[in-house]
Amino acid sequence: MGIRIKFILVIIIFIFSKAEAQTVKFDKKSLAFLKSANEILVEFDYAGLTFASDKKSEAAYIEHRKKRLNDYKDSKGDTWLEGYYKSKNELWQKAFISELNQRLHKSKKKVVFSLNAQNPDYKLIVKTQWMYLGYDVGVFDEPAKLKLDFIFTSIDEPNKILSTLHVKRARGVNKNIENDDDFPYLRRVGKAYEKSAFMIYLVLKRFLN
Question: For residue 178, what pLDDT is reported?
């Protein structure tokens, strides 16, 4: 690969990263505390979560989706519900944590985010406000989308908010092979959480390098 092509690729990557970082709203001064952090406890909050363009409540969305799938095939809705709760309470959280830590491992200042931090310096609350699961029907597809707030709080004073980062849209897309699962849209949402982790990393690395 020629020098000129390499240079162009570097420029493209830089522009892409800068654009992604700019989709996260935050206050620079409020993130100064990160320089003293070593371990951060992560907590996921789904209270008040709404779905799709009509902004159904989680309870209404679950009832609608479960009934629709059970009407299509006996017990399919029940199987979906098990998958949904496993994704929500385990898989999506692990996907976010893994992606964020993997990215931050390259930073000069090492900070670890964990669901089970033993001696955390701070807490990060991942507040999911809105979710769209997307679809893929061959020729037509739509990514999963998330709207999230990332709220850093003090450990000693849980109600003391140190900083809040707002992500208006984090999108997730499956590879073709991943659409062969029974419920590929659950995996797409996991990809959206991974994307949100990347977007947050682009912000945090400014304070850790």
Answer: 53
Say how far apart CA 14 and CA 151 lie, in whole Å. 27
8-13: average pLDDT = 38
Cβ 176 vs Cβ 187: under 8 Å: no
44 forms beta bridges with 126
Q: In angstroms, what CA-CA distances link 76 with 25, 67, 79?
A: 40, 9, 5
Instruction: Supply the mean pLDDT for the chain.
Output: 86
Q: How far apart are CA 60 and CA 64, in angstroms?
A: 6
DSSP, collapsed to helix, strand or coil, labels residue 115 as coil
Residues 6+ apart with CB under 8 A from 128: 44, 45, 46, 49, 146, 147, 148
Percent of the chain residues past pLDDT 70, beyond the cut: 85
In CATH, what is the architecture of 3-208?
A: 3-Layer(aba) Sandwich (3.40)
Q: What's the whole-model pTM score? A: 0.86
> Pairing between strand 39-45 and 122-132?
parallel
How many angstroms separate the Cα of 139 from the Cα of each of 2, 135, 136, 188? 36, 11, 8, 17
Q: How far is residue 103's CA from residue 17's CA, in Å, rounded to a whole number?
A: 13
